[in-house]
Amino acid sequence: MPLRKLLLLATLVAGLSPHAVAALTAADAAKAAPAFTHSISAEWLNGPPRTLASLHGKVLLIDFWTFACYNCYRSFPWLNTLEQRYASQGLQVIGVHTPEFEHERVHGNIAAKLVEYGLKHPVMIDNDFSYWNAIGNRYWPAFYLVDKQGRVRANYAGETHAGDARAREIEADIRKLLAE
Description:
alpha/beta; 7 strands; 180 residues; 7-stranded mixed β-sheet; disordered N terminus
């Protein structure tokens, strides 16, 4: 029996509305976020290494970027504002710096760009693309929303500015996850 028919049958038997079943199905379909692939201090900036377990109960916005990508750094004003707006409600931004070019692999260059761009959140240096591959990323910038239980619930790609359609969508999804 096709999944859609099984869900409809389950809806009728359990007395759930179709919207409730859709919400349960979406939550069940979310995959667990992969563990961060770098765990030594030299591979993290703006604080000690983080683990998903240490962030359990927070909503995460994981930002894949590289410092020479103009789409990435043009998104930082929005990202910094977003972080300030929702941090007290349980949002944690985690940057994942995955280089495109050789000079972007240099620790000191990355650290200088954090200061230049005003990035205060923890940043994992992913020079070997291990986290990029673990999560299945393909774009700079890319944003992944992880719920309080550690499941990837949404992802987005592309330059984002305050007030644009993507920003409004991400912010609505953040508010939804914070409320769960």
